[in-house]
Amino acid sequence: MVQLANKMLSMVRRRTTAEVRGRRGRASDPEWKARRCLLRKREDLADEQFAKMWNPLLAEGKIGRILLTAWIAKESLRNLLALARTGADRHRIGHARWRFLTRCADSDIPEVCQLTTTVDRWWSEIEAFIDTGHSNAKSEGINRVIRLVARAAFGFRNADNQRLRTRYLFAVSLCGSGRRVFG
Questions:
Q1: Burial call 20-36: b when 16+ CB within 10 Å, e when fewer
Q2: Other CB atoms closer than 10 Å to residue 166's CB: what's the count?
Q3: Predicted model pTM
Q4: What local confidence, expressed as pLDDT, does residue 183 receive?
């Protein structure tokens, strides 16, 4: 979910820059300079980094306000997901969800509203994660690696060579070395 929120934030940044400036972002644009900080967690930003991101965006006008609104929505989602493994009661979870949904609804940013729709659609799974602290993140990560490795091995004419290449690349990506994992 956080990955989706970060993608949403990047889409908002690109779209808003194109609409307001009529071009892609440049290194001199405040929103371009802040792009990496926008994707990081608030607690990972030092106060100087946060001020270096926040103040120029706030001074920028429309682009900055839209980006900061989207960033606040992303951080609200992170706060909601952070309730996992804390033993939070239903009232606290419901309040965090309400705060996230309200901020998103008030934003009137299409990408943020789409993120809200996705969170609503997946709410039963998200709630189960918050209650139990268990997710399918590890299996999804392994499946992602398998897909990437299979793409790298695509194109071999011999199916056996492609399968062997896929297994080798997958083993290397898991181990971080070229040592033989499969018999």
A1: eeeeebeeebbbebbbe
A2: 18
A3: 0.73
A4: 47
